[in-house]
């Protein structure tokens, strides 16, 4: 589903690469944690998958497409394969829960009939049935993140990228969000999640990719956060 072949990325006017000679393959349906200290290259890794950045050298292949060869007019199509969730939720503050999720489908031109059918389904899936008409500021942090997950998933993307989705949530609420991401993963969606949350990584026992100063230093199945070598 996602393949990195000797990928290095050095940003303009930088000397040190943000990512260095990274090679890995993530299969369809996997759940992968990406960990590493600040500046280790986690966001760069995610941005390369979205083709928000291009490699300096090497190839990134997503769903069979070499992103170096993807023309700009095909970018929206590529990004539609990938749902994104962030630490700070990024909901539209002036739209209701329902409208936030529906909007994701409206902008890609989905017919009204489909929207009124699938939005309630996905809100039910994330546990927000009955809260359709709330505004984001009338929701708890955990509920806001559920809206963000619903919005990312409503289009049934092949890949879900989550960048510290529990970073603003207390431990108990975080567990709820992780259960939700796990459920989405079980539908066949590949989940790639950046996190600093040790407890979550240790509980879930999924594949762990660890970056250190741009280098992939660990790729461990059913991994834990702190690794005893
Ligand atoms: N647009 C940019 N221009 C120049 N340098 C950048 C840019 N984005 C990131 N970098 C540098 O690349 C390196 C990796 O950054 P990246 O944001 O990928 O790390 P990260 O692991 O996501 O960090 P954090 O946990 O703080 O979000 C850092 O040294 C950073 O300063």
Automatic annotation (TrEMBL):
This is Cell division ATP-binding protein FtsE. PANTHER family: CELL DIVISION ATP-BINDING PROTEIN FTSE (PTHR24220:SF470), IMPORT ATP-BINDING PROTEIN (PTHR24220). InterPro entries: AAA+_ATPase, ABC_transporter-like_ATP-bd, ABC_transporter-like_CS, ABC_transpr_LolD-like, Cell_div_FtsE, P-loop_NTPase. PROSITE patterns: ABC_TRANSPORTER_1, ABC_TRANSPORTER_2. Keywords: ATP-binding, Cell cycle, Cell division, Cell membrane, Membrane, Nucleotide-binding. It is found in: Cell membrane. It is a peripheral membrane protein. Homodimer. Forms a membrane-associated complex with FtsX. Gene3D superfamilies: P-loop containing nucleotide triphosphate hydrolases. Residues 2-228 form the ABC transporter domain. GO terms for molecular function: ATP binding; ATP hydrolysis activity; transmembrane transporter activity.
């Amino acid at each position: 589903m996602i393949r990195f072949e000797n990928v290095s990325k050095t940003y303009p006017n930088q000397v040190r690469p943000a990512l260095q000679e990274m090679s890995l393959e993530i299969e369809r349906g996997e759940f992968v944690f990406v960990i590493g200290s600040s500046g280790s290259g986690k966001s760069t890794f995610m941005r390369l998958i979205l083709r928000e950045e291009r490699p300096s050298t090497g190839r990134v292949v997503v769903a069979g497409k070499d992103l170096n060869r993807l023309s700009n007019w095909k970018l929206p199509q590529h990004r539609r394969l990938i749902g994104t969730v962030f630490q700070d939720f990024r909901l539209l503050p002036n739209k209701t829960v329902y409208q936030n999720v529906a909007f994701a489908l409206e902008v890609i031109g989905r017919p009204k009939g489909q929207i009124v059918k699938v939005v309630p389904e996905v809100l039910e899936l994330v546990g927000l049935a009955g809260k359709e008409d709330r505004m984001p500021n009338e929701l708890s942090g955990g509920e806001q993140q559920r809206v963000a997950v619903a919005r990312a998933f409503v289009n049934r993307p092949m890949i879900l990228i989550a960048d510290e989705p529990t970073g603003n949530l207390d431990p108990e609420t975080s567990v709820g969000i992780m259960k939700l991401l796990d459920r989405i993963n079980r539908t066949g969606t590949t989940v790639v999640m950046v996190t600093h949350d040790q407890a979550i990584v240790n509980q879930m026992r999924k594949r762990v990719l660890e970056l250190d100063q741009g280098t992939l230093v660990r790729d461990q199945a059913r991994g834990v956060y702190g690794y005893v070598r």
